[in-house]
Design brief:
Helices cover 43% and strands 11% of the residues. With 423 residues, the chain is α/β, with parallel strands linked by helices.
Length: 423
């Protein structure tokens, strides 16, 4: 059914008995998300709760009246709460939907009975890890120009968004099934304007960490136990929110919604619950206990190099370890340089790769992104002896034009508006 909320028609489904407690679940994905995801995740709770799932403004089948900001999406959640007639609700969300669930809990604290978060983040550092994880995987070859356009919100149309999502969806599955992934791509919904708004306007300033202490409702943070990145994010969220607990499930793609309620599941899942340090125990003793428990469960068995002597090296051990790390991870040497030296090196690398970029707008976008990081470094209260000059945008564009004589017929018009220059 379609419900008009804050002047925008939303596609809504309600599951479960009319008199049950209400759970409103927000889907992830921005312009690629729909109610199908939270319906599959939280639908099993409908035997005991009234579960409301919906296509957010500008997503799925819902009307797309801007803005597509976090504040507007949170206001739409509250509009749905009023429409369904609930004084308080359980708010839930995974991935980008978790962003909105937290925004709602902070903005409307008196309306939230409890919160459930799945594989999400309280700030925009997950974008940095998206690049890091993509560099360190060997499942698919990355087209870095397309990767950048996806994560910086420079998608040209709905077909472009679908194609870019098809390229990166293999990175989202712990166990990759090409046929299943292709089916998900085909069944998806693609709204490029909403996607671009998310990553051009919402994400650059997204940081809820300073405000998480205002979340007073009971909160369950669920993450994939085999994903170190999501576990790191969950620890930050849990430590900032005074009434939260974290559960590590085996795979977020197969998230067991029913087990949130009943505690069903095998002993491995129960054992993966993240514990708080007991009162009165030192951190050293607590960590040692965790290591002993993990060893008893066999989690250190069959690790590469187990039981073998360390290789003898003639060179300095630290240098040897660093060289081996770079080789194993496939990283360039400048990745381990101090930040100012790394930025200077990136400036040189950008100058070398400018001729290979697709169009003049891509050159300008790359310079803006690098200069923004340089300015962020300059603002740090450090007395660094290394000065990092900004990349000269016009000089870079000139180099590109020299390599591409003739009028710039590249898609300047379709690449979207220029991002603001760093100050």
């Amino acid at each position: 059914m379609f419900v008009t909320i804050n002047g925008n028609d939303l596609n809504v489904e309600v599951l479960g008995p009319d008199d049950a407690p209400v759970l409103i679940a927000h889907h992830g994905g921005g312009g690629i998300g729909s109610l199908a995801e939270p319906k599959a995740t939280f639908g099993p709770l409908a035997d005991e709760m009234r579960v409301l799932v919906f296509d957010a403004r500008g997503c799925g089948r819902s009307q797309g009246t801007p803005p597509f900001s976090h504040a507007q999406w949170a206001a739409d959640v509250d509009g749905l709460r009023q429409w369904i007639g609930a004084d308080q609700v359980v708010v839930a969300g995974g991935s980008y939907g978790g962003f909105i669930a937290m925004e709602y809990a902070i903005a409307y604290p008196d309306r939230v009975k409890a919160m459930i978060l799945r594989d999400t983040s309280a700030d925009n550092s997950n974008l940095e890890r998206a690049y890091e994880n993509a560099r360190h995987q060997n499942r698919v070859s990355i087209n870095w120009e397309n990767f950048d356009r996806y994560w910086t919100g420079r998608i040209r149309d709905d077909a472009d968004l679908k194609a870019r999502w098809a390229e990166i969806i293999p990175l989202y599955d712990y166990e990759y099934d090409a046929a299943a992934a292709a089916a998900r791509v085909e069944s998806g919904s693609y709204r490029y304007e909403t996607h671009n708004w998310c990553f051009q306007q919402n994400m650059p300033a997204y940081d809820l960490k300073p405000r998480l202490t205002a979340v007073r409702c009971p909160t369950l943070v669920t993450v994939c136990s085999r994903s170190p990145a999501t576990r790191r994010r969950s620890r930050r969220q849990r430590s900032s929110s005074p009434r939260s607990a974290t559960s590590c499930t085996r795979c977020s793609a197969r998230f067991p919604g029913r087990r949130l309620r009943s505690g069903e599941g095998d002993s491995d899942e129960r054992r993966d619950m993240t514990e708080r340090k007991p009162t009165g125990m030192s951190f050293r003793s607590w960590i040692d206990q965790q290591i002993e428990d993990a060893a008893e469960r066999g989690q250190f068995d069959d690790l590469p190099g187990a039981g073998k002597p360390l290789p003898k090296r003639d060179e300095d051990a630290a240098q040897a370890w660093l060289r081996e790390y770079l080789r194993r991870e496939g990283l360039p040497a400048h990745e381990v340089l101090p930040t100012p030296l790394k930025l200077r090196k990136e400036r040189e690398v950008l100058a070398e790769r400018v001729p290979g970029l697709a169009c003049e707008q891509d050159v300008r976008d790359a310079v803006v992104e690098l200069n923004a990081r340089i300015m962020e470094w300059r603002r740090l209260p450090l007395d660094s002896p290394v000065f990092v000059p900004l990349a000269d945008e016009e000089q870079m564009v000139g180099s590109w034009r020299d390599a591409h004589p003739g009028p710039d017929t590249a898609a300047t018009d379709v690449a979207g508006p220029r991002r603001a220059r760093p100050r």
